[in-house]
Amino acid sequence: MSWNKVAVVGAGLIKMGELFDQSYEQMASGAFEAAVASVDKGFEPNQVEAAFVATQRGTLWGQEGIGGNTIPTAIGLAGIPCTRIENACPSGSDAFRVGAMAVASGVHDVVLVIGVEKMRDKSSEEGLLSRAAAGHPIFTRGETAPVLFAPFATRHMYEFGTTREMLASVAVKNHYNGARDPYAHFQNEITVDDVLKSPSVCHPLHLLDCCPQTDGAAAVLLVSAERAREFTDKPVYVAGFGVATDHPYLHEKDSFTEIKVTRMASQRAYAMAGVGPGDIDCAEVHDCFTITEILDIEDLGFFEKGDGGRASLEGETSLTGRIPVNTSGGLLAKGHPIGATGVAQITECWWQLRGEAAERQVETRNGYALQHNAGGRGSGVAVVNILTNRTDAP
Amino acid sequence: MTTARFDLPSTDQETQPFWDALKEGKFLIRHCNACGRDHYYPRPFCPTCWSDDVEWKQASGRGTIYTYSVVHVNDLPPFHERVPYVAAIVELEEGPRVMTNIEGVPFDELRADLPVVVEFKAISDDVTIPVFLRNSADR
Ligand SMILES: [Zn+2]
To answer: Which sequence spans correspond to the domains of chain A?
Structure first.
């Protein structure tokens, strides 16, 4: 029996990109307005009882010590309870999970989950400097994001014969989808050759194997399942979720061919939802790098360990494939405004389950969509949320 | 924009013997007398069984590359002056894995399972770090 105590009745985002002309609060406000406008039977902003805001770079990027309180003011709801959640790359997914728990507990009937991130106002050097003192004194000085994932690609290639063409096929597919998503940062198609010939960043990952730095915001409205029909005749329910943590340092990883927390979090989410990987119609997964998506689709149980590269190359994760993955364009094309990323992925799942994904619409035979982020130091934390449009869930 | 460098470790009392030994050409790991396993980095408790009956042990310095990446982009000083360099996870023959650099191996000859051996590299007057070279004796 799926959990189904909480329904998503509204969801929306702003066009992702380099948004130098918008402030943090303006981006949040735009996403909130989009979510409110999406509610079928109408929604008054003052119906929001509480908000959870996901921003990952708050303490580093000019939002020091502000907590959750700038957002209610920005959206005209000063005074409501609002908590900011920071949990690495899954910050948005985790804010969604916490929002769902707040509703399920009965404390609140109507909750806003909003993710917002400013990534482009500072240079990458400043970004690295701001976290340079972090890391382990013996191991991780000079760490960049690609160097946390490239060693997984090397080992996956060594053990399973995964090729750079297989990695590239993930970027090609996600850019194809992004070109069909009006909210995506990049809306151009690319070829395998483009990826292979782009500059090497962290061998074997080249520039087009990496997601961009993107500004953006996304918002969803959660209500108790009993009240869902007040807002829509097409509610989407939270079927289950899971979170997991692992060691923060690469040398402590048991394996370099899996992201263990992804497997653990998904097993918890599947158990809670009463479904398995075979029941999922489409998934939005964490493709910060091409290798990450290949690991994800194995660790989430869609493909056997080692088979993710082949499956990607052969189109099994494309819009018409066996299990469409990252129909929105993923982090690689839609972008990765960290706090907003998970909430934007939820929005895509919501559209897919309501049949509103336009050119990107996939067949939703079973009525389940899965959303996933992994991140943090050494990919030490992952969150998986499963959504369903089924009220007769098993 | 800055002359600060971000490659220097923050040494402390707990790890000082490790840093001191590196200057003398010794690579120390820790051995647990309770469960018999070695670990790295050095900790006051065994990360496997939580015993505090742990002691320093000189590693052979031999191992193999478990996985690696050639880093071509890193804006952080002084790494921006070192690119391209090899970031690697080396599996010591005693078992523990070490995050480190591989030096002196042409990039197209790098591979997982390549035998390597520790080398001691002074990066400042106070600090020597372990890096790894190809172990030709093991080829
Ligand atoms: Zn022990």
So the answer is: 6-122+211-388
